[in-house]
From TrEMBL:
One of its GO terms (biological process) is defense response. Keywords: Nucleotide-binding, Plant defense, Repeat. GO terms for molecular function: nucleotide binding. This is Rx N-terminal domain-containing protein.
């Protein structure tokens, strides 16, 4: 005959046996909050209560089955919580930045709020992120070259992660010859419109997805596009109503036109304060800025653009205070009257044609000019 009380007690003993191996203080550190520990305590108390209740009552067979079912449900919940603790422990001990893949079961941490990095690999694909709806703060997705296809990217459902404030999309190194594939993947990684900061590194698509430049991203204040060697078209970032900082580096772009600022008749970059172009060795010409664009631009940095020969009319940038030019040997000498009247600092280095120009500009400005 089956010993029912023993059968009931066995799941609880299994759970309690596992818990005995963990220091409660360690669990508290891993979860970094009392909430998880309370959940664990509640689950175990439920097991004990059901067991005591069964022992005290003489129940018919049907009632025994119901109690057994309830007991097993509680035991499974407690086991799930212990598995959750194990994944937390793995994340903490490995340090996100050093992981080569994510711990098994990361996708079941539906209450997880902080995850600084997700490493894509054969063992941990982006589909694991589907249920992580509560992620918040900063998330860096690493090794995006390991994403199998655009469906995997879509299954991450980043558009549901409304609490994320910063996203970093990072390919470990540019994979040439996969421009279309990577463009489709980035298209499917469209974030929620609450996003404030976006960084993209080592992307090899020849253009960016439509969502990058969509004015409905009304909270996006900072963008950095770094080392995108196949990109030859910039998105219409001037349409973003809240953008304050923009850094663009290492692209194939040779010409920047009006589309960068947005449609004619609308103010391009209405709140942008800092604009940086860096290491763009094919850029020859920047045009398309009209009066009224960039009304709040205070800092303009152009660095390592060896072919650049023309820039927009600087005099339209009425609030420009700091202008830095570095390693742009073909940059032409400009008449003094094209410089903004609010300009307070001009820094020029590695610009052959401007070697003597600094001596002729108006006094009252902080000027640093080196060969």
């Amino acid at each position: 005959m089956v010993d029912i009380p023993s059968l009931i007690a066995s799941p609880a003993k299994i759970i309690l046996g596992k818990i005995a191996k963990l220091m409660l203080t360690e669990i508290g550190l891993i979860l970094n909050r009392k909430e998880g520990l309370k959940r664990l305590q509640r689950s175990l108390l439920q097991i004990q209560a059901i067991e005591d209740d069964v022992e005290e009552r003489a129940l018919n067979q049907r009632a025994w089955q119901i109690w057994l079912r309830d007991l097993r449900d509680v035991a499974y919940k407690a086991e799930d919580l212990l598995d959750t603790i194990a994944v937390y422990q793995s994340l903490r001990s490995n340090n996100n930045s050093q992981l080569s893949s994510m711990p098994p079961g990361i996708g079941m941490l539906t209450e997880l709020q902080t995850l600084s990095a997700f490493v894509v690999s054969k063992r941990s694909n982006l589909q694991e992120m589907r249920s992580l709806h509560n992620l918040r703060g900063t998330l860096c997705i690493l090794n995006l070259e390991n994403v199998g296809d655009e469906q995997e990217a879509k299954d991450a459902v980043l558009s549901d992660k409304q609490y994320l404030r910063r996203l970093d999309f990072h390919w470990s190194e540019p994979k040439h010859g996969e421009s279309v594939v990577q463009m489709d993947i980035l298209t499917r990684l469209k974030p929620h419109k609450n996003l404030k900061e976006l960084y993209i590194r080592n992307y090899v698509g020849f253009k960016f997805p439509i969502w990058l430049g969509d004015p409905s991203f009304s909270k996006l204040v900072e963008i950095s596009l770094q080392n995108c060697p196949e990109c030859d078209i910039l998105p219409p970032l001037g349409k973003l109503p809240a953008l304050k900082y923009l850094h663009i580096a290492t692209t194939r772009i040779s010409y920047i036109n009006r589309s960068f600022c947005g449609a004619r008749g609308a103010t391009g970059f209405p709140l942008l304060e800092t604009l940086e172009f860096d290491d763009m060795d094919k850029l020859v010409f920047w045009d398309g800025v009209v009066q009224g664009d960039l009304p709040y631009l205070r800092q303009l940095v152009i660095s390592s653009c060896p072919k650049l020969t023309a820039v927009p009319m600087l005099k339209y940038l009425h609030r420009l205070e700091q202008f830095e030019l570095k390693n742009c040997p073909l940059f032409p000498m400009l008449p003094e009257d094209v410089l903004p009247t609010e300009l307070k600092s001009l820094s020029v280095s590695g610009c052959t044609q401007l070697k003597n120009w600094c001596h002729f500009i108006a006094f009252g400005k902080s000027v640093v000019c080196t060969s």
